[in-house]
Write a structure and sequence with these properties.
Elements: H1 2-41, H2 44-75, H3 79-112, H4 121-145, H5 148-178, H6 183-215
Helix pairs in contact: 1-2, 1-3, 1-4, 2-3, 3-6, 4-5, 4-6, 5-6
Length: about 240
């Protein structure tokens, strides 16, 4: 009976932590969506709300880290349960980074509001954002449902997200070369696109964690990065 009690306590504690992860996921998806919408509308108040909301995301991440540490210390999980806990910690960290990217986008909105407009760039960013948010949503669904097929699908979609980024980068570079007045806006838009692309990378990491959690193995092949732009090898944090 004592053993069953410990197991039920572990499951209950883990369910509470997973609920926080899913709440965090919803906040992160909204932050990314709203940051790009604020950019599109030139809405500085909406951009400020995204930055303020990042505190809630950070606080949830800290709660999850604390509670998973307690779970490891007090419940002595078995091998498969240990994978569950470690996956939760990694997923929470990835979501926190995506929240940071949304905050970074909202900061750049302040800088480029009222500046030069580059035709087609905002529409491309919007399309890329919708694509990446779907990756995040599906990766979290795969995690909750223990759906490795969906996780592998998200893993494969990262190539397309990279290609969308590469295409946008080349378009921005062309505009900047044709008219020097586009350089400042073009550079900021490029960094925004890079933030969105990196959010896609973290969605893929969440998918990898699901595969690891269910099978005990990570995907066999190294994920080839489709980012072929010169900025990809600089190591600059954006």
């Amino acid at each position: 009976m004592a053993s069953e009690h410990i197991v039920s306590s572990f499951d209950r504690d883990l369910e509470g932590i997973q609920a926080k992860v899913m709440r965090m996921g919803g906040l992160v998806e909204a932050a990314l969506r709203n940051s790009v919408r604020a950019l599109e509308d030139g809405d500085l108040e909406a951009a400020a709300r995204v930055r303020q909301g990042d505190r809630t995301i950070d606080a949830l991440n800290e709660e999850i880290r604390f509670e998973t540490a307690q779970l490891l210390a007090l419940r002595s999980p078995t091998a498969i349960d240990l994978r569950l806990v470690l996956s939760v910690m990694a997923i929470s960290a990835s979501l926190e980074r995506i929240g940071d990217y949304a905050k970074n986008i909202s900061k750049r909105t302040q800088v480029i509001a009222g500046g030069a407009k580059i035709n087609g760039s905002i529409g491309s960013l919007r399309q890329m954002t919708h694509f990446v948010i779907k990756m995040i949503s599906d990766s979290l669904d795969a995690y909750i449902q223990h759906d490795t097929a969906l996780a592998e699908d998200v893993f494969e979609r990262d190539r397309e997200a990279d290609q969308m980024y590469n295409t946008l980068f080349r378009a921005l570079l062309t505009h900047m070369m044709e008219d020097h007045r586009n350089i400042t806006t073009g550079m900021h838009l490029h960094f925004i696109a890079k933030n969105i692309e990196r959010a896609g990378d973290h969605a893929t990491t969440i998918a990898e964690q699901t595969i690891y959690m269910v099978t005990g193995q990570t995907p066999d092949d190294e994920r080839p990065k489709g980012d072929t732009t010169p900025m990809a090898t600089t190591g600059i944090e954006m």
